[in-house]
Amino acid sequence: MAVKNTLQAAPAEKQVTFQANGQPVTLSLSTVKKYLISGGANVTDQEAIMFINLCKYQKLNPWLREAYCIKYGSSPATLVTGKEAFLKRAEAQPNYDGSKAGVVVLTQDGEITYRDGALVLPNETLVGGWAEVFRKDKSHSMRMEVSMQEYTGKTKDGRTNEQWTKRPATMIRKVALVQALRESFPENLGALYVAEEVGGVEQEAAAMQEMVPVQEAEVIQPEPAEVVPQEPEYSTSLL
């Protein structure tokens, strides 16, 4: 009589497939951890699951940089949306009628100037950004103005981070634009944030972490392999 115990192959990792911009997107825990994490730190299963569900329920394609999962060191992962996703969703709305955005600067003469684009001269001080979004069904535009002091991204030791040091005008203009778009189309852009916003507003970053209940995502967790004992085999051959 011979008793055989065999190690069954681990079941295939569960995947989530959804539609984003008319294209199928398939994500799994291992795919997210291997290819879709920015910042260099290791995310937990829970953080990866939350990212998958952000993409699924908001119909974002992370391969097209419409959504990011960012983690540095031991800090919690931050889930953010790319600016292009905001613009594409706004442009898909029949009532969208364009937008304008720029910077607010303090000139050498001490005057506050609102300027289109992101041009700041060497003798000027960048103090904020502004944006205006127009809807065909509204009698007035949605205008937002944001302060550099509130949104400038900082490192843990309090220094201005690299992106805000190199491109501060581009950054603050983007913050103003996405906020104006979100206020204009809350049903399509509500609860979505770009990285430049959450770098200066901890409350908003925390809110994003709670967007998708973890229990809804548990179905995608892979199951471990297990050793399954087999029934004894009786041989009829002669020894």
How would you concisely characterize the structure shown here?
The protein is an alpha+beta fold and 239 residues long.
Key features of this structure:
single chain, about 240 residues, alpha+beta, 2 domains, three-stranded mixed β-sheet, 10 helices, 11 strands
Describe this structure in words.
- There is one protein chain.
- With about 240 residues, the protein is of the alpha+beta class.
- The chain has two domains: about 15-80 and about 205-220, no CATH class; about 85-195, no CATH class.
- The chain contains ten helices and eleven strands.
- It has helices at about 30-35, 45-60, 85-90, 150, 160-165, 170-185, 185-190, 195-200, 200-210, 215; strands at about 5, 15-20, 25, 35-40, 65-70, 80, 95-105, 110-115, 125-135, 140-145, 225-230.
- It has a four-stranded antiparallel beta sheet.
- Helix 3 runs parallel beside helix 6 (about 170-185).
- The longest helix is centred in the C-terminal third of the chain and has 17 residues, at about 170-185.
- The radius of gyration is 25 Å and the shape is flat.
- It starts with a strand and ends in a 10-residue tail after the last strand.
- The relative contact order is 0.18.
- Residues about 200-239 have low confidence and may be disordered.
